[in-house]
From TrEMBL:
Pfam families: HSP20
Entry similarity comment: Belongs to the small heat shock protein (HSP20) family.
Cross-referenced InterPro entries: A-crystallin/Hsp20_dom, HSP20-like_chaperone, Small_HSP
SHSP domain mapped to chain residues: 26-137
Protein name: Hsp20/alpha crystallin family protein
PANTHER family assigned: HEAT-SHOCK PROTEIN 20 FAMILY MEMBER (PTHR11527)
PROSITE patterns, sorted: SHSP (PS01031)
Region feature Disordered, mapped onto this chain: 1-22
């Protein structure tokens, strides 16, 4: 009995608000990582699930108002062994976001731990909430 390996196809989900459509040609096919976006008064925090991506294989770019997250998956196989079944046929992740003008893309911080990328993007000075003091005349 022979079995054929057929890559799983996920239906294309509509893009989230603020997310740019990824380029999806055969040469650039990539997995779209799940991302949680949390906004507070001082900025936004993104949590992207990137299992199998090492820090060295992760690329983050901000160009004008576009944030691009890309990472290559590297799952080591012990010497002398070969994978008998592979459920994920693409070896990289890619996700592109359009950033609001209220965010300060010069102050982005990033941490990668246990396959989860945490990006913090603070709001620009002009978009920060501020308290105005009233003077008594």
């Amino acid at each position: 009995m022979t079995t054929a390996q057929v890559p799983a196809q996920r239906p294309e989900a509509p893009a989230a608000a603020g997310a740019a459509q990824p380029r999806n040609t055969a040469a650039e096919a990539a997995l779209v990582p799940a991302v949680d976006v949390i906004e507070d008064a001082t900025g936004i925090t993104l949590y992207a699930d990137l299992p199998g991506v090492a820090k060295e294989a992760l690329e983050l770019n901000v160009e004008r108002d576009t944030l691009t997250i890309e990472g290559a998956v590297s799952l080591p196989v012990p010497e002398g062994m070969a994978a008998s079944h592979v459920e994920v046929d693409r070896a990289r992740y890619r996700r592109v976001f359009t950033l609001s003008k209220e965010l300060d893309s010069q102050k982005v911080t990033a941490e990668l731990a246990h396959g989860v990328l945490k990006l913090r993007i603070p709001k620009a000075e002009h978009a920060q909430p501020r308290r105005i003091q009233v003077q008594v005349a």
